[in-house]
Structures are given as structure tokens and as C-alpha cells.
């Protein structure tokens, strides 16, 4: 049997009983003949509690020390899990991200993996041990400082290790039974998907689906690593995410729609009164890029003929909103806009499916469903396999349910089970 990488989220190891349950599942995989590498997140809400504590001590903690603090949560989980495995009669060794060879750039709080050198993990496996790795963290190639990968970074750690170790599969264990056609916390009749292409899953993850981080899916697609999303609370088969359908050509054509995703973690900035001439948009987004802020949707209005001015709106993570405003204010003299508007009470709804591009009427049905639900649209963005709109945050849940029903995605069976409460 081959090597498997398993990742367990915070809800799976939230308490001592959860850790012992996870340890038994890991040992079962070892007994079945697999070499097992485990990536673990911090217990429950530990990371949020550490963030709150840091903010009480310092309103703007230094990035280096903030990373040193946040990585403590995963180190606690890995040590306790190794202890639980040893109590079941199997040898386990725990490793921090740096000990596991996870090499990153030097951007604190949202570092990106640039290499994985898992020599110590290989040695542990060759000695017959189970390797436990702290997720969400690595070490800077330049400064040798500890870094963190940002929210959900344990998913990326797991896939990166799976690629470096040439694993058969990367199993992501969470508190739901797989990937659903919508968030089962919002749509009780959401259907579980047995298999979804990496392309569709990437769009869902980027559009707000909480089961997998989009960086994790991107990494898996690049290195052709199959992901198996399962619940650590049940024995159900879960969802396969891969570049190719494991059932071969049995499914001749994909379903038109893979799912409906939503995201209420973004804010909208509108740059008002921008001179409509070459270079203005570049200056705006250069200021945002220099502040190391990622943006999502962008819309530019047609300029008013009388003034020659236009408005440019874009969305970005709420957590980066005030930093973006500060960056633009500093560049106001160079850009020459009139004012800025900030709105953090928005939500995004996305319809995703590879079959959309060959099926006329999908767009019309999507907007009709939103209209029938009384949902007003503020921004629209499309790709070949996705339609996204921004609306009021208060309308998001109603919009998701309306679109899900309109496209026949509601399940006739029992409601989807959410075992934990965080979605990770």
C-alpha cells in the first residue's frame, strides 16, 4: 500500500475525545498497510483565541512575533495527537512546519510555500513511524523566521507535503461529509458531490466555499494530487477532487452546475471621480499591490461625457479594507480621484459549473432567480465556468437558496449533516 497524507481541521481535534478519535482513524490507516503523514490544525477556536489575546496586548502586533504566537496552536495539537497514537501502540513523531521542511517566502501572516524538503519526514516513515506535522506554518528561506500561511493554510501544507512525498492521495478531514452543492449550513437540502473536477472546485473555493482553501486546490491541480474530502466524524466515502474522473468516461458530460458558493468576508471600495485616461487604473491597482492586498472583482463605469471622469469599484478581503484605503489616500495626489467609498456590508454569490459555457439560458435563469427573490445586484463578474454577483450581505442566504432551488440542486433525501460548526 502507498503513502497517504491526512489533514485534520480544528473541529476534528477540538477536544481530548476528538483527538483520540482521530488517532484511532490514523492507526487504522497504518494497520491497512499505508505509510501515514498527518497534518493537523490548532484545536477548535485556539487560533481565534490567540488572535484576540494578541489584540488585547497590542493593537498592531509585529508580524514576526504574531506568527510565533499563532504557530503555538498547531504545535499543541501535533504533540497531543502523537501522544494519543502512542497510547494505541504505534510510534508517532511530531514535527513543526520548519522541521518538516516547509520553506516559504518572507511575508508574515500570509506566506506562500516555495519549496518542501521533507527529509526528516522520509526518515520517520522509513523507521516505521507515523509522522505528525503542524499545519499552517513554515520557515522563511531568507530570514529563517517562522511564518504562517494564512487562514486555512493547513490544507495547503497537506497538499504540498503530498506532492513532495509523491503520495497516492491527500485526505482532507473536516466536519461535513464532503463537498456539497452549497453550504449545508445555509441550504439544508444541499447535495453531496461524489466527484468534482479540480477546475470547478477551484472556482467554488475562490468564490467562498469553506470546505477547501483555493490555494490548496490550485496546488493539487498543478501537481496532479487527488484530494479526498471526508468527515472525521463518520465513515462515509466523501468527495473526490481530481483532474480526471476516477470513474473514467462513465460520466460522459459533466453536470451543468456544480454548485452555488457564497462569501461574506469581502468589502467593496469605490474610487470616485477617476480621470478617464490611460494609466489611472494601473496607478490605483499598483498602490493596492504595493500594499500586498489581493483583490477579487473589478468594475469600471462608463465615464461621464461632461466631466471625463469615471468610477472604479473593486472587492477585497474585509481584513485588508482599511489598509487599502490608507494606501489609496497616500496615492491620491498621483491618481487624482475625488473620493473613496468603503462598504463592508456586502456578500458575493457565485454559480459554478463547467457545463455553463455550452448551455444557453444559464445566465438568464440565474438572474431570474435573484429577481424572484427580490435581490438587488451591485456588481457582476463572469468567467467560462462561473457567474458571480455582489449584493447586500443581508440578502445572501436568501439568494443562495433561491439559486440552488432554481437550478434543481435541492436534494430529496435527508438534510446534510454538519457535525461541527466551523466548516473546517
TrEMBL record:
Enzyme nomenclature, EC number: 2.7.2.4
Enzymatic class: transferase
Catalytic activity line of the entry: L-aspartate + ATP = 4-phospho-L-aspartate + ADP
Domain ACT: 269-354
BP GO annotations: diaminopimelate biosynthetic process; homoserine biosynthetic process; lysine biosynthetic process via diaminopimelate
Residues holding ATP: 7-10, 174-175, 185, 210-211
Keywords: Amino-acid biosynthesis, ATP-binding, Diaminopimelate biosynthesis, Kinase, Lysine biosynthesis, Nucleotide-binding, Transferase
CDD domains: AAK_AKii-LysC-BS, ACT_AK-LysC-DapG-like_2, ACT_AKii-LysC-BS-like_1
Gene Ontology cellular component terms for the protein in this record: cytosol
Pathway: Amino-acid biosynthesis; L-methionine biosynthesis via de novo pathway; L-homoserine from L-aspartate: step 1/3; Amino-acid biosynthesis; L-threonine biosynthesis; L-threonine from L-aspartate: step 1/5; Amino-acid biosynthesis; L-lysine biosynthesis via DAP pathway; (S)-tetrahydrodipicolinate from L-aspartate: step 1/4
An annotated Gene Ontology molecular function: ATP binding
Cited Gene3D superfamilies: Acetylglutamate kinase-like (3.40.1160.10), VC0802-like (3.30.2130.10)
Residues annotated to bind substrate: 47, 74
InterPro entries per record: AceGlu_kinase-like_sf, ACT-like_dom_sf, ACT_Aspartokinase, ACT_dom, AKii-LysC-BS, Asp/Glu/Uridylate_kinase, Asp_kin_monofn, Asp_kinase
Matching Pfam families: AA_kinase, ACT_9
Record keyword ATP-binding present: yes
NCBIfam families: asp_kin_monofn (TIGR00656), asp_kinases (TIGR00657), PRK06635.1-1 (NF005153), PRK06635.1-2 (NF005154), PRK06635.1-4 (NF005155)
Family: Belongs to the aspartokinase family.
Cited function: Catalyzes the phosphorylation of the beta-carboxyl group of aspartic acid with ATP to yield 4-phospho-L-aspartate, which is involved in the branched biosynthetic pathway leading to the biosynthesis of amino acids lysine, threonine, isoleucine and methionine.
Protein name, entry field: Aspartokinase
Organism for this UniProt entry: Streptomyces xanthophaeus
Amino acid at each position: 500500500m502507498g503513502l497517504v497524507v491526512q489533514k485534520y481541521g480544528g473541529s476534528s481535534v477540538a477536544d481530548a475525545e476528538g483527538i483520540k478519535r482521530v488517532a484511532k482513524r490514523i492507526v487504522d490507516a497504518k494497520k491497512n498497510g499505508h505509510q501515514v503523514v498527518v497534518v493537523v490544525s490548532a484545536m477548535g477556536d485556539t487560533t481565534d483565541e490567540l488572535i484576540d489575546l494578541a489584540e488585547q496586548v497590542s493593537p498592531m502586533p509585529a508580524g514576526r512575533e504574531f506568527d510565533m504566537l499563532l504557530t503555538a496552536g498547531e504545535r499543541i495539537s501535533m504533540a497531543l495527537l502523537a501522544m494519543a497514537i502512542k497510547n494505541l501502540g504505534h510510534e508517532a513523531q511530531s514535527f513543526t512546519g520548519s522541521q518538516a521542511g516547509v520553506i516559504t517566502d518572507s511575508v508574515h501572516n500570509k506566506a506562500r510555500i516555495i519549496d518542501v524538503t521533507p527529509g526528516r519526514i522520509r526518515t520517520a516513515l522509513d523507521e516505521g513511524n507515523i509522522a505528525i506535522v503542524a499545519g499552517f506554518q513554515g520557515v522563511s528561506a531568507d530570514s529563517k523566521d517562522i511564518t504562517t500561511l494564512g487562514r486555512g493554510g493547513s490544507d495547503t501544507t497537506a497538499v504540498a507535503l503530498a506532492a513532495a512525498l509523491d503520495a497516492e492521495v491527500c485526505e482532507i478531514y473536516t466536519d461535513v461529509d464532503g463537498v456539497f452543492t452549497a453550504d449545508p449550513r445555509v441550504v439544508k437540502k444541499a447535495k453531496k458531490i461524489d466527484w468534482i473536477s479540480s477546475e470547478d472546485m477551484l472556482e467554488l473555493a475562490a468564490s467562498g466555499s469553506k470546505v477547501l482553501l483555493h490555494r490548496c486546490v490550485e496546488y493539487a491541480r498543478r501537481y496532479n494530487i487527488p484530494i479526498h474530502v471526508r468527515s472525521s466524524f463518520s465513515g462515509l466515502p466523501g468527495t473526490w477532487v481530481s483532474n480526471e474522473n476516477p470513474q473514467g468516461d462513465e460520466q460522459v458530460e459533466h453536470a451543468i452546475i456544480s454548485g452555488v458558493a457564497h462569501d461574506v468576508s469581502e468589502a467593496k471600495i469605490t474610487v470616485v471621480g477617476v480621470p478617464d485616461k490611460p494609466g489611472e487604473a494601473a496607478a490605483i491597482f499598483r498602490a493596492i499591490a504595493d500594499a500586498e492586498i489581493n483583490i477579487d472583482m473589478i468594475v469600471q463605469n462608463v465615464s461621464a461625457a461632461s466631466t471625463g471622469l469615471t468610477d472604479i469599484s473593486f472587492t477585497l478581503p474585509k481584513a485588508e479594507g482599511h489598509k487599502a484605503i490608507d494606501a489609496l489616500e497616500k496615492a491620491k495626489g498621483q491618481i487624482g480621484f475625488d473620493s473613496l467609498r468603503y462598504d463592508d456590508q456586502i456578500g458575493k454569490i457565485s454559480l459554478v459549473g463547467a457545463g455553463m459555457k455550452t448551455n444557453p439560458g444559464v445566465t438568464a435563469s440565474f438572474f431570474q432567480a435573484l429577481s424572484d427573490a427580490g435581490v438587488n445586484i451591485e456588481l457582476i463578474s463572469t468567467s467560462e465556468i462561473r457567474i458571480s454577483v455582489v449584493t447586500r450581505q443581508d440578502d445572501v442566504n436568501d439568494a443562495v437558496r433561491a439559486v440552488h432551488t432554481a437550478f434543481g440542486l435541492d436534494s430529496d433525501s435527508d438534510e446534510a449533516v454538519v457535525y461541527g460548526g466551523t466548516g473546517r
